[in-house]
Recover the amino acids of this structure.
């Protein structure tokens, strides 16, 4: 095989593998979420299908496959059909640049454990996630229903506001690593727990987690689909597999922000105590699942925000704090002597 | 080879969806087609070896600005534009004439343009910015901003007449 064909073959294998893993993870996460929420609320949750109810997602999938597809009479046909596809495609596209482990050597070449190792990896994710809102907005508009329209508009306003804080929370991390490449941002955190950006950027990490929760519109920021007021928000009119696609986009987005959080702030595949335990992709999985569980935990714990609170919090608290973090980081990088910074592991 | 194929693919997509933007009567479809145009342009920037501008193109235009467009269209509930416009026939002849002039201009530029990039051409973000702001493209760049201003004034004028 020519080098180009080899590249393509490796890329194809990676794409298929990650696609399958993500689909499985999506199915498992729906079950984990229902069970965990149930335990938080002193219920049992789905526990009948298979051992501990683990086959429940499969049963749900089969059920959704055989349900009738309903389209509202006044719906805009093409946009109504395209919206779930847009949501799912953008969700899967953004996870393409997230690395899952250290690059390794095989077949006489270096193989990265991610689909695409872009120079502008973080910017790419930012760009694609800003497209993700179209799936929701268009789905809400095309359904020709006031609840879905309100849900879609809420979603776009919310994502717009919190995307700013999300992007600003990355800036300090980018400055410390001197790169947009996620791979390099992870390696810049080498040297144990205290070199992780969760410690080095102690302000940016909570900002990222809050903004990410809002970005994937999960409780307490799930106003776009607030059941008590909007039925189910933007996906009220979707049924059958299109409903499943909307759900899938939401969960894949959640997995993406959790994977990104573990890479940017928790050192990705790096071990917290490198002198005792070696680096491994297992660390990445531990961090990923911890963050995913955090999202479920939040949902089981916090009530939904009011809309004005949401906007107020985003613009008047998160954005100024993120800017403050950028200024402090830049100041520290510019004015602290390199020796002192190296002692604290701050910057390159 | 693959680059060329991909380039023509996205170029055709950009041009085609730009036509849809102008020709479509439903403003929402126009806006969606504009997003496709922006995305294709971004892909072409990426092919030229400038991923930074490619990403910015999507973040700023396809992401931020177009969401605002959609927002306005949805909130104002802009309806499909049906029927002939009420403009006088004189205006239409002027428009066709001016359009023909523009076509001829674009044609001559295309005719004179060498298709391959000159040797040593660097499309990285900094170089492009330099080229824009220093000498060669300064006039084009400024002319574009005047064009945008004209479009803004036109939009305001059109909206005012409705009252």
């Amino acid at each position: 095989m020519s080098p180009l064909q080899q590249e393509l073959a490796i890329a194809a294998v990676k794409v298929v593998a990650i696609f399958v893993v993500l689909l499985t993870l999506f199915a498992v996460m729906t079950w984990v979420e229902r069970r965990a929420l149930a335990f938080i609320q002193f219920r049992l949750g789905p526990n009948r299908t298979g051992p501990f109810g683990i086959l429940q997602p499969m049963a749900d999938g089969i059920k959704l496959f055989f349900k009738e597809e309903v389209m509202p009479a006044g719906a805009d046909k093409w946009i109504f059909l395209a919206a779930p596809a847009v949501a799912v495609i953008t969700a899967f596209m953004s996870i393409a640049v997230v690395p899952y482990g250290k690059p390794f050597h095989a077949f006489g070449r270096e193989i990265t454990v991610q689909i695409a190792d872009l120079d502008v990896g973080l910017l790419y994710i930012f760009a694609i996630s800003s497209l993700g809102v179209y799936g929701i907005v268009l789905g809400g508009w095309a359904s020709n229903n006031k609840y879905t329209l309100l849900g879609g508009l809420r979603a776009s306003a919310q994502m717009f506001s919190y995307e700013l804080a999300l992007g600003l929370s990355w800036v300090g991390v980018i400055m410390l690593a001197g790169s947009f490449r996620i791979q390099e941002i992870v390696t810049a955190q080498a040297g144990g727990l205290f070199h992780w950006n969760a410690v080095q950027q102690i302000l940016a990490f909570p900002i990222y987690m809050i903004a990410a929760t809002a970005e994937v519109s999960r409780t307490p920021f799930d106003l776009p689909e607030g059941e008590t007021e909007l039925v189910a928000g933007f996906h009220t009119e979707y049924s059958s597999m299109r409903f499943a696609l909307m759900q899938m986009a939401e969960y894949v987005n959640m997995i993406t922000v959790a994977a990104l959080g573990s890479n940017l702030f928790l050192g990705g595949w790096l071990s917290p105590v490198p002198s005792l335990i070696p680096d491994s992709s297992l660390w990445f999985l531990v961090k990923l699942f911890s963050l995913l569980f955090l999202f479920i935990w939040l949902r089981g714990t916090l009530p939904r925000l009011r809309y004005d609170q949401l906007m107020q919090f985003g613009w008047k608290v998160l954005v100024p704090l993120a800017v403050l973090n950028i200024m402090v980081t830049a100041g520290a990088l510019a004015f602290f002597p390199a020796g002192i910074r190296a002692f604290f592991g701050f910057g390159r | 080879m693959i680059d060329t194929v991909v380039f023509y693919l996205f170029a055709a997509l950009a041009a085609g969806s730009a036509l849809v933007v102008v020709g479509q009567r439903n403003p929402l479809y126009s806006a969606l087609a504009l997003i496709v145009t922006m995305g294709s342009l971004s892909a072409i920037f990426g092919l030229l070896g400038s991923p930074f501008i490619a990403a910015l193109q999507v973040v700023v235009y396809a992401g931020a600005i177009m969401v605002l467009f959609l927002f306005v269209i949805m909130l104002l509930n802009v309806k499909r534009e049906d029927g002939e416009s009420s403009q006088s026939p004189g205006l239409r002849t002027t428009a066709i004439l001016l359009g023909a002039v523009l076509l001829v201009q674009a044609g001559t530029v295309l005719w004179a343009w060498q298709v391959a990039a000159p040797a040593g051409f660097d499309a990285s973000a900094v170089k492009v910015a330099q080229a824009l702001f220093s000498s060669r493209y300064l006039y084009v760049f400024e002319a574009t901003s005047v064009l945008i201003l004209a479009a803004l004034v036109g939009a305001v004028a059109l909206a005012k007449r409705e009252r």
Summary: Chain B has two domains: 1-81, 120-163. DSSP finds six helices and no strands in chain B.
